[in-house]
Amino acid sequence: RREPLALINLKKKNDETGEEELAARLDHCKAKATRHIFLIRHSQYNLDGRADKDRTLTPLGREQAELTGRRLASLGLKFDQIIHSSMTRATETTEIISKYLPGVRKISTDLLREGAPIEPAPPVSHWKPEAVQYYEDGARIEAAFRNFIHRADVKQEEDSYEIFVCHANVIRYIVCRALQFPPEGWLRMSLNNGSITHLVIRPNGRVALRALGDTGFMPPDKITRT
């Protein structure tokens, strides 16, 4: 519902001429800016934690977050905000990254929490959540996609650069949806901890993937996928 034609009332007529000034009104509803979306997977965390609060970053995970923070800062971009999952590992990753991006506001959301977005195709034998989890998590993750991944608002004048710190399943699903690929293929991609995925959304709604799971800025001995 961000296509210009969806934003105007086609039945509304100009008071003076009685004719619809469609071209002018369409131009007024067109986005002008490009959005740059940086999707960051959280760093390595303690897999033995039973509750979310116990699944804190490992020492290596903290190192990874430092490296990711430095990499983002080195890009020299004016980041507008960091939106992060409310889960512990994503929150801790955000806190470390934000040290390198002073003044950038942080926003926590439950929408970006990890989950099972949609049943993968082909199926895998090592990961089979209950069917109800797809319905519960899938609706939430789809809501995250619709809420965050879209063309710029018509009022936005300048290009924006936004960071989202979340989870592998969420990022993979968002990439498939954004590129209009079958979302059931999300599990065919693999993302390293602390990796950077870069989506670009043009004013006309066209989406490009500039980077997927980039960790080229990390030494080989610091790279993990757990």
In a nutshell, what does this entry contain?
Keywords: Hydrolase, Membrane, Mitochondrion, Mitochondrion outer membrane, Necrosis. Belongs to the phosphoglycerate mutase family. BPG-dependent PGAM subfamily. This protein is α/β, with parallel strands linked by helices and 226 residues long.
Keywords:
Rossmann fold; 2 domains; alpha/beta; 226 residues
Structural commentary:
By secondary structure, the chain is an alpha/beta fold. The chain has 2 domains: 1-30, no CATH class; 33-222, Phosphoglycerate mutase-like (Rossmann fold, 3-Layer(aba) Sandwich). The protein has 5 helices and 6 strands; from the N terminus they run αβαβαβαβαββ. The protein has helices at residues 22-28, 59-74, 88-98, 131-148, 168-178; strands at residues 35-41, 81-85, 105-109, 160-166, 196-201, 207-214. A hairpin with a 5-residue loop joins strand 5 and strand 6 (207-214).
Task: Explain the layout of strands and helices.
Blueprint: H1 22-28, E1 35-41, H2 59-74, E2 81-85, H3 88-98, E3 105-109, H4 131-148, E4 160-166, H5 168-178, E5 196-201, E6 207-214
Parallel strand pairs: 1-4, 2-3, 2-4
Antiparallel strand pairs: 1-5, 5-6
Helix pairs in contact: 2-3
Catalytic activity: O-phospho-L-threonyl-[protein] + H2O = L-threonyl-[protein] + phosphate; O-phospho-L-seryl-[protein] + H2O = L-seryl-[protein] + phosphate
Family: Belongs to the phosphoglycerate mutase family. BPG-dependent PGAM subfamily.
Subcellular location: Mitochondrion outer membrane
